[in-house]
Specification:
This protein is an all-beta fold and about 500 residues long. The chain has one domain. It is built from two helices and 41 strands. β40 and β41 form a beta hairpin.
Length: about 500
């Protein structure tokens, strides 16, 4: 039997957890007012940016949604695209920047590179690529009302632009306490790759701050943020820090690609790693160690049409300042939101209350395929790795296929160690949750609870015995769960169930 709790108890557990606590929660902010103040410095964390070939990605059908193989199963995850190539600095379509150059007579050629990124962008026209040599550029970068520009870091100093290596040639864009490091407004076809983006305090519409590392406004389209390390940015400095968004990245545009980045040690009220409200593909990133001082979304805060593919989401935290909070790894929320999650590993995230790994909320419709969630933690009784809550005008929908949820680190109080499906507002329609070909194991033996929602489980292996066609309740025989290896022993009775990516690598 699937566990159940009294509706009043469920409401008490998650009361107030809906994201639409003000009318502006899904409304894009206006274009920011950017101040120019003294740059700050930060040594930042060690450089652990993954090589492009190590990241996981997923094929799409041209709309940002994953391609689907025959039989309804998600297609395999191929390597990410190759990094941007080095181009010849011709002083016209390719402009080069080196902070160590003399600066006299700069024209963007190899012999006379610009010394400032801003100067190069001022000289650029549509179709231009700006290549930047290693060094620290204490100048917030602004794309405002421009089209078809690329900004590429990772070149050696001294006039050698013949090859690029963003790990060997660290190229730092340094923000200020009151600016985003990179601000993109009313622009299209913008590509930013190969930088460390740090020290940004965000942009503001006077209501809140957002986008410490990168801000993309609602008028921008077809923007790619690729292969960067975005760290140590903080937007939680307003009178109401809990309402700030996107310490690392805040995106409100459409056709946005956030691919192969490391987003770490950023701070915001919500979505301290990445906040995205719009149509975006968030693929092959590492999002870790970000702290949300508000109550929703430690790592990611998502609405609109997000495709969340092949990311590693670890060690993000939410709610400690307030004493309550949901969605340590991520929250997907809002009526009209259509989300695709595939191939993500979500581990070691923390929420004070429920949904320490993932929170699907307020009428969102999410499809989750080939997902691994393990060892996410919380401190409040009733915590659970995944929370599905109906609080919107339309039912919240979550379809789980080949999902593994294991090793929940939350107190047990009969509210489901792995999955809680509940209604936080009595007038809301019941959520709809389906689980198939999945493994829920090592979560205290009380895997699922439904409080007023429709929960259907089939062809799955759960430690808690659950009625449903093809369900089993036998040890799946993980190879080494204590070390994060959730691959299955060849003799496992759960072959074909759970995530195919079963380890944290």
């Amino acid at each position: 039997m699937i566990g159940s709790v009294a509706l009043i108890a469920v409401i008490a557990l998650i009361a107030g957890c809906g994201s639409s606590d003000d009318d502006s929660s899904t409304s894009p902010p206006a274009s920011p007012v950017v101040a120019d103040t003294t740059a700050s410095s930060d040594d930042g964390p060690a450089d652990d940016t993954p090589a492009e070939s190590e990241a996981r990605s997923v094929p799409t059908d041209g709309t940002g949604s994953p391609a689907v193989a025959p039989g309804g199963e998600a297609a395999p995850l191929p390597p990410l695209p190759d990094p941007a190539p080095a181009l010849s600095c011709d002083g016209s379509t390719v402009l080069c920047v080196d902070s160590g150059a003399s600066g006299g007579g700069a024209d963007g050629t190899v012999s006379q590179p610009f010394t400032s990124v801003a100067d190069a962008l001022s000289a650029a026209r549509a179709g231009t690529t700006v290549q930047v040599a290693a060094g620290t550029y204490a100048e917030p970068v602004v794309f405002a009302g421009v089209d078809d520009l690329s900004l590429i870091g990772g070149f050696a100093t001294g006039g050698d632009f013949s090859a690029r290596d963003s790990q060997a040639n660290e190229t730092v864009l340094q923000g200020t306490s009151e600016t985003s490091v990179v601000s993109i407004t009313a622009s299209s076809n913008i590509h930013v790759e190969g930088f460390r983006l740090t020290g940004g305090g965000g942009s503001t519409d006077t209501y809140r701050w957002y986008g410490g590392g990168v801000h993309i406004d609602y008028e921008s389209t077809d923007v790619a943020i690729v292969g960067n390390r975005i760290d140590s940015n903080a937007v939680d400095h307003s009178d109401d820090p809990g309402e700030t968004e996107g310490g690392g990245i805040a995106s409100y545009g459409n056709g946005i690609s956030i691919i192969g980045n490391v987003v770490e040690n950023n701070r915001a009220g919500r979505g301290s790693g990445i906040s995205s409200i719009g149509k975006a593909t968030i693929q092959g990133n590492t999002v870790k160690g970000n702290v949300s001082v508000g109550d929703h979304g430690g790592g990611l805060y998502l609405a609109g049409e997000p495709s969340i593919l092949g990311n590693h989401i670890e060690g993000n935290r939410v709610g400690e300042t307030l004493g309550y909070g949901w969605g340590g790894g991520m929250i997907v929320y809002g009526d009209g939101t259509m989300a695709t999650l595939q191939g993500n590993v979500i581990t070691g995230n923390y929420a004070v209350a429920a949904g320490s790994g993932v929170f699907i909320d307020d009428g969102a419709d999410a499809t989750l395929t080939d997902e691994l969630y393990y060892a996410n933690e919380c401190t409040v009784d009733g915590g659970t790795e995944m929370l599905v809550d109906s609080g919107g005008e339309t039912p919240t929908v979550a379809d789980l296929v080949n999902v593994t949820i294991a090793q929940t680190d939350c107190p047990s109080s009969g509210n489901g160690g792995a999955l809680l499906a509940a209604i936080s507002e009595a007038a809301a329609p019941p959520c709809e949750v389906t689980v198939t070909k999945s493994i829920f194991w090592g979560n205290g033996g009380d895997d699922m609870v439904s409080g007023g929602c429709n929960l259907t489980v089939t062809n799955s292996d759960t430690e808690q015995a659950i009625d449903g066609e093809g369900n089993i309740s036998v040890d799946p025989m993980f190879v080494d769960p204590a070390s994060g290896d959730f691959s299955l022993d060849p003799a496992s009775p759960a072959a074909g169930l759970g995530a195919t990516e079963r380890s944290p690598s």
